[in-house]
Design brief:
Helix content is about 0%, strand content about 60%. The protein has no helices and 10 strands. Strands 2-1-5-6 form a 4-stranded antiparallel β-sheet, with no helix packed on it. Strand 5 and strand 6 form a beta hairpin. The mean pLDDT is about 95.
């Protein structure tokens, strides 16, 4: 069984046991699970349920593994003959989540 969930403006196709990286959000202290309630589609290969926009009663539960960071991105700006150089870096914070259960 698979599901398509929406979180943080992005859509993810997940199955039981999959590991995904989602954008960091505020989670309660000591919480070890993440619940995705915006399930857009649920399918098992033969039959699919498509929501308008969400499937009623469908939920996906995940286990919070750890906090992670993405790759470092370098931002370089340069203007020739002006003496202007700008060099910045950025690393996005993510949460590593393992999908445990898809219920519909």
């Amino acid at each position: 069984m698979y599901a398509i969930v929406e979180d943080g403006g992005k859509q993810y196709r997940v199955q039981d046991g999959d590991t995904i990286y989602i954008e960091t959000r505020q989670i309660p202290e000591g919480a070890r699970t993440v619940e995705f309630d915006r399930v857009l589609m649920v399918g098992d290969g033969k039959k699919s349920r498509i929501g308008t926009p969400c499937v009623d009663g469908a939920k996906v539960l995940g286990r919070l593994e750890r906090e992670a960071q993405g790759p470092k991105l370098e931002i370089v700006k340069y203007a020739r003959r002006k003496g202007y150089h700008l060099h910045k870096g950025h690393r996005q914070d993510y949460l590593k989540v393992t999908i445990e259960k898809i219920s519909c």
